[in-house]
User: What shape does this take?
Amino acid sequence: MKEIIKQLVEAYGPSGYEGQVTDIITELVKDYVDELTTDVLGNLIAVKKGTSGKKVMFSAHTDEIGFVITHIDDKGFLRFSNVGGLNILTLVGGRVRFANGTIGVIGKEKGDLKELDLDKLFIDIGAKNREDALEKVKVGDFAIAHREYNDLGNRIVSKAMDDRIGCVVLIEALKKISKPVHDLYFVFSSQEEVGLRGARTSSYAIDPDLGIAVDVTPTGDTPEAPRSEVALGNGAAIKVMDTSVIAHPKVKALLTRLAEAKGIKYQYEVLTRGGTDAGAIHLTKEGVPSGCISIPVRHVHTPSEMIDLDDVQACVDLVVAVAEDALADF
Amino acid sequence: MLLKRLSEACGGPGKESVVRDLIKQEITEQNLADEIICDAIGNLIVKKDGTKSDGPKVMLAAHMDEVALMISNVEKNGLLKFKPVGGIDLRILVGKSVYVGANKVSGVIGAKPIHMQRPEERNTPLGLNELYIDLGVRSQEEAERLVKVGDYAYFTTSFSEFGDNLYKGKAFDDRVGCAVLMEVLKERYEFPLYVAFTVQEEIGLRGSTVAGYTVEPDLALVIEGTAANDIPDSKEHQQSTNLGKGPALTMMDRSVIPNPRLVSEILKVADEHKIPVQIRRGTQGGTDAGKIQGTKGGVPVAVISVPCRYIHGPVSVMNKNDYNNTIELVKNFLKTLEQRGGVL
Assistant: This one.
């Protein structure tokens, strides 16, 4: 599993430009699925056909937070705006990478740290002047954080764990499911970080009977962390609510029952700030019972997001359990 | 000139009927459409059949509403209290003339004169509690004979040409988009064209949320008036767009990341036809494109904007060439699409 994680977290895929990620996933899953399609918004939808007539949608997003270039000055320095929720404290001195491999350093103008905002930051790609910069980058190009993958043993730290680790969970799960009961739609969704946009349209097209997002959640187990019961290594997190969705009681009950029955380590997640694809899925058409299986991640929305492999495995097992359940209530 | 009439027409969010009637009348008189629908929320959706029976459904959209002030209370003394609807900088309001309500009753936004202000009052911009509209009447009864709570007040700006090839007037956001679409409607294409003049954009892209479902397009372009901040105190990277440098394409804003293929095709068309274009700097604001993109299973969208200085204020300024080049860019893109049999 580590190999797939490394391959996916290292890929380039800011919101709206997830093609490299979906290409990798296509290669990884094509032999295990009945159908594979890409839609207008860039969602990759992998289908395994069942016989029950029920449709289950799982969704993990392929996009990562990043940067969009808004201006290039005469000296070749780039200005940028955020793509999704960047934490400004993590930016200065960091590096970014563009689709063509160009690397840049984030620098800041002089001034009081308290007044630091994105307008006072710039990216230096080592260009001599504007013309030189334009050889490599244009206004409107997107970039991602550039940071290496580190294997810490049972824990791994990298950029873009949010939500490539969710993609890994879905890939590992769909490999394990040999005889699907229901029509299973594994959506590798686009543009989650800018407002759950890919999940919204893919869910409309699929019109599922049950929707499960697989996404990361911050932990409350670090020094003086914002309050959260979720801890790294404590298992799959079953979402109770966040700012985008209140997990349907039936879905929360289903996930809890399956975790108990299969001996899968789990914890409940109450997230007071943040949303996930389930927020879009549950409002599709007349409404879809939806919930979320979350992978605990430390340092979310920094270039150093940390996961625990046991948690990831627990999430894989829980996804498989949902897929293989009779789903009598749905 | 239609742009002048559109700019001077008054239509706050939810009360776009004057603008809608003007557009509808113009389309009917010039026989520009095969079908005109006004939906329940007030969008005007105009269909122009293609010369071929099939082809992609192409949707063009511009919003009819403008930011405005809604009358919230008529005071005992006949003065009106109000609330901004859409983003309005309160600091620009004092001392402006306004028209209130459908009958365009004249009023003035008043405040205590500088002579009477205490030094500390001079240092703080006036808030909604201090500002009021004076209709020149003496009592609540007199005022209520002229206007009602819920009426909108609008700036009284007349449209005119001025300076070096510029236009000034109110509500260029997004009457300029409406005017561009009226020009585009004059030609017929192989594919069916759906032109949506939407409502309530300024308070949350509400009209386009509905219009997208009505049209179910295969491709959509949103035409906007966008902020140009090319004024002395902003640094180059904060200017968003510049007047005279051509229509602006959006790479990302708060509502949408436009379809990369569509954007690059539009840039190619601009290049081939030597139409100047600029990429909008900054990612502030949102447009109807956000809602149209999210319609049903998803729609490829792009946003083309005419740069306008001082938008959401009493008078905005735009460049004639930018306006004409936006019309040319949209027309040429549609022709290119036609030559390719409607395939992007």
